[in-house]
Amino acid sequence: MDAESARRRESAAQAVDPCVTSAVVVAAFWEDANGAAIDPQAGYEAVLDQVQAVRDGALSGPEAMLVGQATALNAIFAEMARRGQAALGRPGIAAERYLRLAMRAQAQSRATLRALSDMANRPSKEVEAPRQITRIERIIVQPRGHDAAYDMPLGEVGSMDEWAARNAERESYGQGLDA
């Protein structure tokens, strides 16, 4: 592979690397907001460090980010609601637009807080939640014998579990699993 091909391949790999693209966006917004540039390599390494921390199970960074976002969105809600109230009774649609923006910020803040709550309530890596067994698995694991509901009058359950008995009744009316 020649040098030009290698350069193109490296450029493409960087374009699809989420750590690179995130670092570029952070650097651009940071420079616009603060007037100070971020070294691209240092920005990439900072994003990569956060990704690795999350992979290792440390969620303090993402939790702090979500709390900050919810707080900022609440401030946006308050300011847009204030502007909307000030524009009420004036000609034009400014009041409606400000109040719509306020409601969007409030809804996004609520969604952010819900994500934070979900993150806090998720099971850790060490404790795995027990897997639910589906109805189909129950049928396959506990197959019916020859004395199953086909030969039994309705209302007799025998050794079948409650679901199988209800399904047997449905089958007798043509509403079983094939329906």
Describe the structure.
The protein has 179 residues and is an all-alpha fold. The protein is 68% helix and 0% strand. It has seven helices and no strands. The chain has helices spanning 3-16, 18-34, 40-55, 60-87, 94-121, 135-141, 162-172. Helix 2 (18-34) packs across helix 3 (40-55) and helix 4 (60-87) runs antiparallel to helix 5 (94-121). Residues 146-152, 154-159 and 175-179 have low confidence and may be disordered.
> How many strands, which pairing sense, and closed or not: the largest β-sheet?
none
C-alpha-based Rg, rounded: 29 Å
The dominant shape is: flat
Compute the number of strand runs: 0
Average of the residue pLDDT scores? 79
Task: Count helical runs.
Answer: 7
Tell me the series of helices and strands, N- to C-terminal. HHHHHHH
Strand content: under 5%
Helix content: 55-70%
Q: Low-confidence parts lasting 5 or more residues at pLDDT below 50?
A: 146-152, 154-159, 175-179
Alpha-beta content class? mainly alpha
Query: In whole angstroms, how far apart are the ends?
Result: 60 Å
